[in-house]
Amino acid sequence: MKPVVFLLLLQVTGSAHSRCFCQVKGDLDDCDCDVETIDSFNNHQLFPKLQTLLESDYFRFYKVNLNKPCPFWKVTSHCGLSDCAVKPCSPNEVPEGIRASSHNKYSKAANEELEECEQAKHLGAVDVSLSDETREALLDWNKHDDEAERFCVVDDEESPDSQYVDLLLNPERYTGYKGPEAWQIWNSIYEENCFKPFTIKRPVLPNSFQCTSGSEARTFYSWLEGQCVEKRAFYRLISGLHASINVHLSARYLLDDSWYQRKWGHNVSEFKQRFDSELTAGEGPKRLRNLYFLYLIELRALAKVLPFFQQPSFRLYTGRAEEDQNHKEMLLDILQVARSFPLHFDETSLFAGDEKEAAKLKEDIRLAFLNISRIMDCVGCFKCRLWGKLQTQGLGTALKILFSERQIEALPKSSENRPSFQLNRQEIVSLLNAFGRISTSIRELKNFRSLLAEER
Ligand SMILES: *[C@@H]1O[C@H](CO)[C@@H](O)[C@H](O)[C@H]1NC(C)=O
Ligand SMILES: *[C@@H]1O[C@H](CO)[C@@H](O)[C@H](O)[C@H]1NC(C)=O
């Protein structure tokens, strides 16, 4: 169904529903895909499976250093904003297999902390033994981490400042972190890290701290169109990430904060402020389209990385063999589903030009991405910092995968040879969780579509 007629019909109604969504349909630019196919694929096939996988111990514990100083400017901490605080796990909460090297820390302080940190009860009995083989496997992961091919700063896992965080206890939701500081983060990403000359003004929403005129927006988009497909893709990925975060904040808004209850839920008016084409001078729907673009890129990475996880030597190691095996099967199933998606974005159209030029571009993009992951240390709100770091690392891992196609295909079927492509646990956890966020955002758009339709 080519939705020209359909589109016209919707435009006539002029409701908030159509202002948010009538441009968010049909074919996406720079790829052979349409929004409707992604919606139904994600909402019915991928999303439910992914949710289950991400609740497993392997994927819910993310090791992160939230205490790195901001390398670019002075940050005022938002520790006081309680909705922003992140509860780290005390070591005993993390399954033995995952924390591998840091056992035997049963200090009084750790025990007290345990009570504070909401206990993850279902962890149950933990097998504390580590076979030699596993220990070796874990060491192997670290050894193979290839600094040169990284798109993202990976926190030093051994740093005393790195902590395990239970992602299920720290959901991404509305935190109250906005205003000039939050704006500065996004502004420096877009202004200083997206290949944009200062003379070209980026379109910003009418209610933010600057205002853009229609002619500036037009200049911006014609500049963007003039960019090579790679730099355009880069901009769209960042914009898609931004949109995804805003969808989450609108879907998990703090609706009621009284002494007897705290209620989180959909705030349609917040959503409209961010995505209604009228309220955003046409920007909102473009951002939502970028969200779909980001989805496709990460989906493609998942499809490509399948051979890495199919290696018999690969394990989702937590120390409980049977569970680990089940979760590995669940993961492989998800990657197979990702592979079955009919309209994959074709990244051979990226970096396909003259070899030398392509290598330079790839390097430029890698460096810009690296820098953006450092900007995440400047996010004042810790919960936002956590999810910001996780999502940039996940996207960085997706890019690493997309540009390592040959190495992944060359992975030996047996575990004997030294593989030339590796992902460490942090990269794996961030890749799947970052995709989980985007997948949730796409699913949430369905909720907002119905909520807005009800408003009519
Ligand atoms: C990294 O980002 C900061 C903050 O936006 C910016 O000042 C700096 O120029 C960027 N560095 C590079 C190498 O892009
Ligand atoms: C929804 O968000 C708007 C801001 O966009 C805010 O003014 C309003 O109070 C929120 N509604 C609820 C029920 O919290």
Automatic annotation (TrEMBL):
Q: What's the source species' lineage?
A: Eukaryota, Metazoa, Chordata, Craniata, Vertebrata
Entry GO terms, CC: endoplasmic reticulum membrane
What kind of membrane protein is this, topologically?
Peripheral membrane protein
Report the superkingdom from the record: Eukaryota
UniProt GO BP: protein folding in endoplasmic reticulum
Q: Where is the signal peptide?
A: 1-18
Question: Among its keywords, does the record have Transcription regulation?
Answer: no
State where the protein is found.
Answer: Endoplasmic reticulum membrane
Any Pfam family from its record, for instance, is ERO1
List cystine links. 79-84, 117-152, 381-384
Does Cell division appear among the keywords?
no
The record's annotation in InterPro entries points to:
Ero1, ERO1-like_sf
Q: What is its main location?
A: endoplasmic reticulum
Family assignment from sequence similarity: Belongs to the EROs family.
Give the binding site residues for FAD: 173, 175, 186, 239, 242, 274
Q: Which UniProt keywords apply?
A: Disulfide bond, Electron transport, Endoplasmic reticulum, FAD, Flavoprotein, Glycoprotein, Kinase, Membrane, Oxidoreductase, Redox-active center, Signal, Transferase, Transport
Which cofactors is this protein said to need? FAD
Concerning PANTHER family, the annotation shows: ERO1-LIKE PROTEIN ALPHA, ERO1-RELATED
Q: Please state what the protein is called.
A: ERO1-like protein alpha
Q: Tell me which species this is from.
A: Nothobranchius furzeri (Turquoise killifish)
The record places the active site at 381 (nucleophile), 384
Q: What Gene Ontology terms describe what this protein does at the molecular function level?
A: FAD binding; kinase activity; protein-disulfide reductase activity; thiol oxidase activity
